[in-house]
Amino acid sequence: MKHYLNKYNKYNTGIGKRKKASATVFLVQGSGNLIINKIPGGLYFQNNPDYLFDLWEIFSALVFQPEIDIVVFVKGGGLAGQAEAIRLGLIRIICKKDKRWRPIFKGYGLLTRDARIKERKKYGLRKARKAPQYSKR
């Protein structure tokens, strides 16, 4: 990842997080591809339209030139959390590059990081909140 930070402008990077997933997104010169952890985007998300639609929806709205590649390094979490982390990182880059998009994305609630994460298990309980059955006598 340091290779991209040195080779490309830091201005073209965005970080997105969701649950346990953390994604670092780079906009680089290329041929209009989405590359996630050195794997093509469709292959990484197993061609699942639920995950890919969120990302391509942003591309189609912005009418990106085909000479821009999106390179992503993502770790942690599952595919759904990773897809949302990538989307947030990509939207943050777009808002950095062009301030006119900020109120539009803000209106749709796309700039807000979803802060819901898994609650930790407490001692004396079976799960985070599930307690053993209580017997009065």
UniProtKB/TrEMBL annotation:
<keyword id="KW-0689">Ribosomal protein</keyword>
<dbReference type="InterPro" id="IPR014721">
    <property type="entry name" value="Ribsml_uS5_D2-typ_fold_subgr"/>
</dbReference>
<protein>
    <recommendedName>
        <fullName>Small ribosomal subunit protein uS9c</fullName>
    </recommendedName>
</protein>
<dbReference type="GO" id="GO:0006412">
    <property type="term" value="P:translation"/>
</dbReference>
<dbReference type="InterPro" id="IPR023035">
    <property type="entry name" value="Ribosomal_uS9_bac/plastid"/>
</dbReference>
<dbReference type="GO" id="GO:0003735">
    <property type="term" value="F:structural constituent of ribosome"/>
</dbReference>
<keyword id="KW-0687">Ribonucleoprotein</keyword>
<comment type="similarity">
    <text>Belongs to the universal ribosomal protein uS9 family.</text>
</comment>
<dbReference type="InterPro" id="IPR000754">
    <property type="entry name" value="Ribosomal_uS9"/>
</dbReference>
<dbReference type="Pfam" id="PF00380">
    <property type="entry name" value="Ribosomal_S9"/>
</dbReference>
<dbReference type="GO" id="GO:0003723">
    <property type="term" value="F:RNA binding"/>
</dbReference>
<dbReference type="GO" id="GO:0009507">
    <property type="term" value="C:chloroplast"/>
</dbReference>
<dbReference type="GO" id="GO:0015935">
    <property type="term" value="C:small ribosomal subunit"/>
</dbReference>
<keyword id="KW-0934">Plastid</keyword>
<keyword id="KW-0150">Chloroplast</keyword>
<dbReference type="InterPro" id="IPR020568">
    <property type="entry name" value="Ribosomal_Su5_D2-typ_SF"/>
</dbReference>
